Amino acid sequence: MNLVLLGPPGGGKGTQAKRLMDTFGLVQLSTGDMLRAAVSSGSEIGKKAKAVMDAGQLVSDDIVIAIIDERLDQADTQNGVIFDGFPRTVAQAEALDAMLVRKGRGLNAAIEVRVPDALLIERITGRYTCAKCGAGYHDKFQKPAKDGVCDKCGSTEFIRRADDNAETVTKRLDAYHAQTAPLLPYYEKKGILSVVDGTQDIAKVTTDLETILKSTKK
Ligand code: ADP
Ligand code: ADP
Ligand code: ZN
């Protein structure tokens, strides 16, 4: 089963993708994570992407399409993937459809995690992750059980993203509405779009997503 998670920055896509992976045997493919890895490795792609990401704009379609195309040729994606943060433009969605056909696969579902803009600044400015294992947290909404210690791996080091500041968030929201929101009618026309209420607590959003995925045709 291949699934696209749609929704605004800070909507909870990454949080939910991680919670769904084990239950459904899927692999999370986050283009944001892959681009950040490219930036820290100092690769050519990373150099091109960095300034664009810091400005809250979208990296060019060619770059992200190539990254996903290559990643889908690795064996661990065979059983199915959760696309998290990709596609983000209609051109990326069309390229994804074409590459899945080429690889003999298909898309089973696209789910919008819907959250109004007013809630997203607080979600994003409070976001941080474990530096060692990548587990996601929030200053207010998802604290580790023991202050300053990762629940998953016990690490005491955490990181915040350079682009998770109030000014950049506004630009990322503009990019979402202008360039990514058109994917909602795109997938609706294909008959594979569902919506979950992303303002609910994290566990309830997961339950709603699981209900949809259980009734999704493989
Ligand atoms: P968020 O989860 O907050 O929406 P991401 O980690 O998905 O953020 O993305 C961070 C940044 O990486 C984006 O603002 C954009 O610059 C770039 N990026 C990630 N995925 C894509 C994509 N599919 N197309 C273009 N740019 C992307
Ligand atoms: P996205 O991947 O869509 O950009 P994240 O999954 O990184 O979003 O979530 C953004 C922040 O909001 C994180 O700090 C996360 O802990 C928190 N968060 C995620 N889902 C919820 C929720 N349903 N309610 C409250 N906070 C949430
Ligand atoms: Zn950890």
Map the helices and strands.
Blueprint (H helix, E strand, L loop, with lengths): L2 E4 L6 H12 L2 E4 H11 L2 H11 L6 H11 L9 E4 L5 H13 L6 E6 L5 H6 L1 E4 L5 E3 L19 E2 L6 H15 L2 H7 L3 E5 L4 H13 L4
Parallel strand pairs: 1-3, 1-4, 2-3, 4-8
Antiparallel strand pairs: 5-6, 5-7
Helix pairs in contact: 1-9, 2-3, 4-5
The site of zinc ion has 8 residues, from loops.
Find the count of extended strands (DSSP E, 2+ residues).
8
- Which ligands are bound? adenosine-5'-diphosphate, zinc ion
What share of residues are in beta strands? Answer: 5-15%
Distance between the termini: 5 Å
Question: Quick one: overall form?
Answer: globular
Helix content: 40-55%
What can be said about the biggest beta sheet? Answer: 5 strands, parallel
Radius of gyration: 17 Å
Low-pLDDT stretches: none
Q: In which order are the strands of the major sheet placed?
A: 2-3-1-4-8
Model description:
- The structure is a single chain.
- By secondary structure, the chain is α/β, with parallel strands linked by helices.
- It has nine helices and eight strands.
- It has helices at 13-24, 31-41, 44-54, 61-71, 90-102, 120-125, 166-180, 183-189, 202-214; strands at residues 3-6, 27-30, 81-84, 109-114, 127-130, 136-138, 158-159, 193-197.
- A five-stranded parallel beta sheet has the order 2-3-1-4-8, with helices on both faces. The protein has a three-stranded antiparallel beta sheet with strand order 6-5-7.
- Helix 2 (31-41) crosses helix 3 and helix 4 (61-71) runs parallel beside helix 5.
- It is globular, with a radius of gyration of 17 Å.
- One adenosine-5'-diphosphate binds at residues 7, 9-15, 123, 126-127, 136-138, 141-142, 198, 201-202, 205.
